[in-house]
Amino acid sequence: RAEFAALDALYEARQREAQRLIDMLDLRFKGRIRDLKKTEYVRVSEFYPAAREIISTIAMNYPRLMFEVTDDEAHADDLGMDIEDLYERASLSLLEITQAKAHVTQGIMDALYCQIGWIGIDYNPPGDDIMPPWTANSQDEEDLVSFSRRPPFFVHVDPMAPPHMLGHARYI
Asked: Phi and psi of 109, rounded to 5°?
């Protein structure tokens, strides 16, 4: 219980810092400029172009799945195409159907500003327990996966875990 109280203080400081960065992105600054009214300000964030470049080069191009099949029988000439191409087209269609790219883009924004980007992967159960982005009349989407962004302030990771080895965390 004492560790959770310490983590609350740790995450509160992180949330303030993340909010400060988000305010910078939205060009909301607290400082005043002498002899100018607030309506005369021209605000330019130095952080915004860097974030825009990162997001445009990573988030708009990914996720993209590539497959390599090493089984010799998968490259049979009677298929007319390599099985890797078939897998890649099917996976890209799945990413488009599930609207995963938007969740990945938002997860990258969360990681840039809030230090953690978390995307939950759920399974869409058949029947009336259907979850977004699927609708109740979409018969083809039953039993597919669905992706959803988790708000970064709701995800608390063990601070003792290395950032590149989340499997070593005692709790998340």
From this structure: -60, -45
- Residues forming a β-bridge with 78: none
68/66 Cα distance (integer angstroms)? 7
Please give the model's pTM, rounded to 2 decimal places: 0.61
Separation of alpha carbons 114 and 151, rounded Å = 10
Q: From CA 89, how far away is CA 65, in angstroms rounded?
A: 9
What is the distance in angstroms between the CA of the first residue and the CA of the last residue of the chain? 15
Contacts for 122 with CB less than 8 Å, ≥ 6 apart: 131, 145, 146, 147, 148
The verdict on whether omega for the bond into residue 163 sits within 30 degrees of 0, i.e. cis, is: no
d(CA 45, CA 71): 52
Q: Which two tokens stand for residue 95?
A: 């990413």
Of the ranges 26-30, 38-42, 51-55, 153-157, the best mean pLDDT one = 153-157
Q: How far is CA 145 from CA 32, 94, 100, in A?
A: 49, 9, 10
Question: Which residue carries 């990413």 as its tokens?
Answer: 95
Tokens of 128: 């009336």
